[in-house]
Amino acid sequence: MQYNGKIVIVTGAAQGIGTCLAETYAKEGATVIAADINAPLGKKTVDRISANGYNAIFIRTDVANPSDIEQLIKSTVEQFGLIDILINNTGIGCWKSPYELSVEEWDTVINTNLRSTFLCSREAAKTMKLHRGGSIVNIASTRAFMSEPNSEAYAATKGGIVALTHALAASFAPDHIQVNCISPGWIETREYDQLHDIDHTQHFSQRVGKPEDIARACLFLTNPANNFINGTNLTIDGGMTKKMIYEP
Fold this sequence. Notes:
Low-confidence stretches: none
Number of domains: 1
Strand content: 15-25%
Structural class: alpha/beta
Helix content: 40-55%
Largest sheet: 7 strands, parallel
Number of strands: 7
Distance between the termini: 51 Å
CATH topology: Rossmann fold
CATH architecture: 3-Layer(aba) Sandwich
Strand order of the largest sheet: 3-2-1-4-5-6-7
CATH superfamily: NAD(P)-binding Rossmann-like Domain
Shape: globular
Order of helices and strands: EHEHEHEHEHEHHE
């Protein structure tokens, strides 16, 4: 229970990696604020955590809306007095040809993924600096460094998150706020047992990733004993971004 008594906000906590993050921190003793736009799924996450005897609440939050972010931080501080850890996990994509991608679609992805990471971090940091610091982890993607076609908006946000991470680490350093980033590769959040052998063996680690791989890394980065790790990006992809691929 190394996070006993800590107050942890996880955005995008209603499903996938976010749900695993919320459950993992709660099991380690933290009080988790699960933030998501999807209220039914978000409440199910919190109900499941509470049913297992751990502490969590749900706050409906559209991170593309700055006022929702402000309310998330305000509500958290009103109830718990401080924020120890923020995990910026929310992310959406729009897989569309750049010839067809509309300005509105571009802005939706940018605002949800990138702008929200800045705004959530800024608002949380205002409270963290009053309580001797804190830790922020931003969830980016290996798509910040490698791409498939029609992923421009998503790739731009993830590359931006990596750069934003070290910029925030520099700006928040005097306030003892640590900012790091994780770039997951293929993390299967649904039908893991339906994957094929080739899915696993194309990774150096001989398996596709799981949400728990990201959750364990977050626990590592936000542990106060590891505060010398700051402003960095941790790639967790089973080695895929290091694999040379020659097409015949």
